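Students often ask why we bother encoding 3D structure as a string. The short answer is that it lets us treat folding as translation between two languages. Here is a chain of 115 residues written in the first language.
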Amino acid sequence: MRGIISKIFKAHRSAPPGVVISETDIDAVLNHLRRLPYRTATPASWDRQRLLLLIRECIGKKPVIGQFNEIAPGVFAVIKPMGVDLTNYHDSHGRYQVWLMIRSWGTDLARITDL
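And here it is in the second language, the structure alphabet:
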């Protein structure tokens, strides 16, 4: 029994950390992308599959905490430890979470500020 448990822990430590993403973030991004004025219509399932593929390609096989990626027009992703935004969630178990951020299209040129 001890040998089996030892193998499980070794496999867990050597496995790459998991990467997760919030379904609500996915839904919000898909709604944003579907509203873009130059977008061609495609089946909803294709949109979801394509978005997840783009995210996987951008973060790569070895995600880095704090890594920032441009995913699609107005869609950005940052890698965070799993649960960093949750109160009393102290251990991410080596998992990462992708946070998606959306910037709406259509800059109002009458309302810009110099930096």
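Translate back mentally: The helical segments are 2-14, 23-34, 44-59. Keep this in mind for the problem set.
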